[in-house]
Automatic annotation (TrEMBL):
Belongs to the EamA transporter family. It holds the Pfam family EamA. It comes from the Bacteria. It is found in: Membrane. This is DMT family transporter. Keywords: Membrane, Transmembrane, Transmembrane helix. The chain crosses the membrane at residues 7-27, 33-50, 62-82, 88-110, 117-139, 145-163, 175-195, 207-225, 237-256, 262-280.
Length: 285
């Protein structure tokens, strides 16, 4: 396994911790998203300034990096609202349709078209996710505003992956992360002000959870995933991110005693097999 794939795996493990922390419900979803970005920025900014790793790119890459930050922040905000208006399961499932949107956008608008293995792997992985969640869930799914918001979240996620893939060929990872986090923090801060969210008054446990979200789920995770995105196909990265559902399920069983059924195990194996199919051909890419 080469370095980008190792980085992607560790990054996925880091973001898989996030749903466990959110389930604790120590703060609201929007303020949690704001501090996730703000704390990550607060940790990264002194490092890039002291080590002089921060390089302001030319105007076009700078604008695209800022746009990526707003895209990512929008995705998080829309996803949180979708959860509040429906369920975490529905919102997470629909958001994780992002690989499909990445494939469709790449097919119609980009030169680097998805391979046959990507489409086969996507179908298998999505079937595995459906099995993991449970077929009965789809019978009860409501096609309402929350459904539309969750779909929008997946589209935003897909656009972010593709746009960041493009800009990371022109901007180094540390500069890109600093700029995009700065944009995300300002954007989410404005949303929280409009929504009249409290910025202070949390318990010590809540602040600890917020710090872990910023340091591990955002900063460490997305430095690693950005490195993987820079060196791998965007379609493979997006599909691999589906595995966070499997890892999150295992962590929920390990730390908060959520049950794992045989159906969930089978679904997880199918999902991971689908991801594996996309890596079967052209292994040096």
């Amino acid at each position: 396994m080469n370095k980008p794939r190792i980085a992607l795996l560790i990054g996925i493990i880091c973001i898989s911790i996030f749903p466990i922390l959110i389930k604790l419900q120590l703060t609201s979803g929007l303020i949690s998203a704001f501090y996730r970005m703000a704390i990550a920025l607060g940790l990264l900014l002194p490092y890039v300034l002291l080590t002089k790793k921060m390089i302001i790119p030319k105007s076009k890459p700078l604008f695209i990096s800022i746009f990526c930050g707003i895209l990512f922040a929008s995705d998080v905000a829309v996803w949180n609202v979708a959860i509040q208006k429906s369920s975490a399961t529905q919102a997470t499932l629909l958001t994780n349709l992002a690989p499909v949107w990445v494939g469709i956008i790449s097919f119609f608008f980009l030169k680097n078209k998805p391979t046959t293995n990507f489409w086969i792997g996507t179908v298998v992985a999505l079937f595995g996710m459906i099995t993991l969640v449970g077929f009965d869930f789809f019978i009860k799914m409501n096609f309402d505003l929350a459904f539309s918001l969750a779909i929008l979240s997946g589209v935003l996620y897909a656009i972010y992956i593709l746009v960041s893939k493009n800009v990371l060929s022109k901007v180094d990872i540390y500069s890109f992360m600093t700029i995009s986090l700065f944009a995300s923090t300002l954007f989410l801060g404005a949303i929280c002000l409009i929504a009249d969210e409290p910025f202070l008054g949390f318990s010590s446990n809540a602040w600890l959870v917020l710090f872990i979200q910023g340091a591990i789920c955002q900063l460490a995770a997305w430095l690693l995933i950005s490195y993987a995105t820079q060196n791998m196909r965007a379609t493979r990265v997006s599909l691999s991110l589906l595995s966070q559902g499997v890892i999150a399920t295992f962590l929920a069983w390990l730390f908060i005693d959520e049950k794992i059924t045989l159906q969930m195990i089978i679904g997880g194996v199918i999902l991971l097999s689908g991801i594996g199919i996309t890596f079967y051909e052209n292994k040096n890419s």
